[in-house]
Design brief:
By secondary structure, this protein is an alpha+beta fold. It has 29 helices and 17 strands. Helix 7 runs parallel beside helix 8 (about 305-315) and helix 27 runs antiparallel to helix 28 (about 600-610).
């Protein structure tokens, strides 16, 4: 993986080489092995390289076609590059390198914009076509948004970069926070596509391209996740036949993604997805596979016994790291360096430590991201599946019933409510949802379901609660089955905005390339054809993945409940990390800065420290924003 950036200025306005150099310099952690810069009139491209395939200098970037009039800077991996290379050679193209980057150039020459849908991989790239009198710049992002790509447009100029940091080197890019998004950030722990925390900065949408010419920009879509829902489901096949096909496809996908000229391993939690990847990697043969796990002294959060069992059963070269709060203390203040937008999923800390640990041994690591989204694996999936009947009840009837329960329990002192009744009250709160869009919004994000009007009390700029964020998305999904809607919502929001963003930033912080085989085109296509009854059966999430695990792993793995990659944040914020609450959520400081309601935040802090409630995720979200603001705005 790498870092890319560049500029497209107004006609007649030369791109500054110093500015390109500064932009590239802000991405050294993403590409520690080489730097390249290219200028052609009003277009400039910059690249930082992490060498993974074709380690020669010939594969450095920017890379060009034969006559130098098509140039590219590329971040990611194309997993079907060998098949594409064979096809392109048969059509008369000549390759100079063994790099997948060069394949994109020749594919574009052959098929133009239609080439983008032929790429199977994780990628973000900028391609400059200088063959005509009017230059054209394409910004292209992979199907699920695994690789980030940000851009700004102002006064006829466009600049772009993998991260926001290079864009802040550009004089005309403003640093004004989009305050209207703070509510959404608190709810979801991320900034929803296509926004960023800064008003001037946007994200290229997954599965799309931007065609930029002097004074204009046009968006095109080469793939939409709705294609998964519209694929015909194949009924009537035996379960064992589906299992055989899944095993064959998974083994083929993993072999394809194990192609590397540098050491490769697997991130192993002992959960369903990472265990399946490890199983497929060992089936591929070759050198003994290296696996990596992270754990805690707190048994409630520790998954290392499961990872150890998988590693022992499959015979991997297993490496384990047990962490304590002390390991996080120095890391906390570094988070904004690697996550250059506010990002509040607390597991980013453990993901950073795991990636740093793995990078001591390998340069490429496989990750199980995407398995939950494609095969119905989240607890919230299950909850929404069970709510399908309530969703059809008229809001006035449902709200009347559950508001009565909410009001009754709310009148009792919170300290006197046992945990079970606290959960009942929370359920009564969220079951007052007005429509599908509001209901889905309750179940996406890391803070868990929380009534939106109560969450809005924390921000000074109040949101429009009459138009939930998912309103437009729900309209697009009209006509799909209930369970297909659930799948689509998570594929379009939680997967790119939280899951993939977390893994990309954490891995690239240490120059580790993370690959996600579950998002390979072939496996995605399989999940689209698979009957829902084999994804969720008799209350069992990821049913077919669990069944496949039983072929080589013991029931302790295949039958275990989803634990999630959690950290003991609740107690750490009351102990070793309490200083973050004292320093960053101090009432006077919040009042001076003007983003959050000081009294509402301090109430959360007091309730958490007094053990009257667990507000750890919400408090961490506000702390994370404060850390980011201190690093980039103060």
């Amino acid at each position: 993986m790498c870092g890319i950036s560049g500029l497209f200025t107004r006609p007649g306005e030369e791109v500054s080489p110093d500015l390109l150099g500064k932009m590239a310099g802000r991405m050294c952690h993403r590409g520690p092995d080489a730097q390249g810069i290219f200028r052609h009139g009003s277009i400039g491209l910059a690249h930082r390289r992490l060498k993974v395939i074709d380690l020669s200098d010939e594969a450095n970037q920017p890379m060009f076609n034969e006559d130098g009039r098509v140039a590219i800077v590329f971040n990611g991996e194309i997993y079907n590059f060998r098949e594409l290379a064979e096809d392109l050679r048969a059509r008369g193209h000549t390759m100079k390198t063994q790099s997948d980057t060069e394949i994109i150039i020749h594919a574009y020459e052959q098929w133009r914009e239609d080439s983008f849908r032929r790429l199977n991989g994780l990628f973000a790239f900028a391609l400059a076509d200088l063959r005509d009198e009017t230059p054209v710049l394409y910004l292209v992002r992979d199907r699920f948004g695994a690789k980030p790509l940000h851009f700004t447009r102002r006064d006829g100029k466009v600049d772009f970069a993998t991260d926001i940091k290079p864009l802040l080197e550009v004089p005309w890019v403003g640093r004004d926070v989009d305050r209207a998004l703070l509510f959404h950030y608190l709810k979801f722990s991320h900034l929803p596509l296509p926004h960023s925390i800064l008003r001037d900065v946007h994200q290229v949408r997954p599965g799309t391209w931007l065609r930029i010419e002097p004074g204009t920009a046009r968006e095109g879509t080469y793939w939409d996740p709705i294609e998964i829902a519209r694929s015909p489901v194949e009924d009537g096949r035996k379960e064992e036949d589906w299992l055989d096909e899944l095993e064959s496809i998974l083994n083929r996908v993993v072999r394809r993604q194990m192609i590397s000229d540098v050491p490769l391993g697997c991130l192993l939690s002992g959960g369903i997805d990472s265990s399946l990847l490890t199983m497929a990697c060992t089936a591929a043969g070759g050198q003994r596979l290296k696996t990596f796990s992270i754990g805690y002294h707190e048994a409630e959060f520790d998954e290392t016994p499961h990872a150890r069992l998988v590693a022992a059963t499959l015979g991997t070269d297993h490496h384990e790291l047990i962490v304590t709060p002390a390991d996080f203390l120095d890391l906390v203040r570094l988070v904004p360096t690697y996550y250059d937008v506010p990002f509040a999923d607390p597991t980013l800390l453990s993901t950073l430590l795991l990636c740093r640990f793995a990078r001591e041994h390998v340069t490429v690591a496989l990750s199980g991201d995407g398995g939950d989204e494609l095969f119905f694996g989240y607890t919230y999936h299950q909850a929404l599946h069970r709510l399908r009947l309530l969703a059809g009840v008229p809001p006035w009837a449902r709200q009347g019933l559950f508001r009565s329960v909410d009001d009754f329990l709310g009148a009792l002192p919170a300290a006197l409510l046992p945990h079970r009744l606290q959960q009942v009250r929370k359920a009564a709160e969220i079951l007052q949802f007005r429509d599908e869009a509001e209901m889905f919004s309750y179940f996406v994000g890391t803070i868990g379901p929380m009534r939106l009007d109560r969450l809005a009390e924390l921000v000074l700029e109040k949101p429009d609660l009459d138009t939930p964020l998912f309103s437009g998305m729900v309209l697009e999904l009209d006509g799909l089955s209930w369970d297909e809607k659930i799948t689509q919502v998570f594929l379009r929001s939680f997967l790119p905005d939280t899951v993939l963003a977390k893994t990309d930033r954490a891995s690239m912080a240490y120059g580790l390339e993370a690959r996600v085989p579950f998002l390979d085109d072939e496996l995605v296509g399989f999940s689209a054809r698979l009957p829902f009854s084999l994804k969720y059966k008799r209350g069992i999430k990821k049913y077919i993945l669990r069944k496949l695990l039983t072929r080589k792993l013991p029931p302790a793995i295949s039958q275990r409940s989803k634990q999630g990659f959690s950290i003991p944040l609740r107690e750490w914020l009351r102990g070793e990390l309490r200083y973050l609450l004292d320093d960053y959520l101090e009432e006077g400081r919040l009042r001076r800065e003007g983003y959050f309601e000081p009294s509402a935040v301090r109430r959360l802090v007091r309730e958490h420290l007094d053990r009257r409630a667990n507000h750890s995720h919400l408090l961490w979200s506000i702390v994370s924003f404060q850390l980011w603001k201190e690093a980039y705005l103060d």
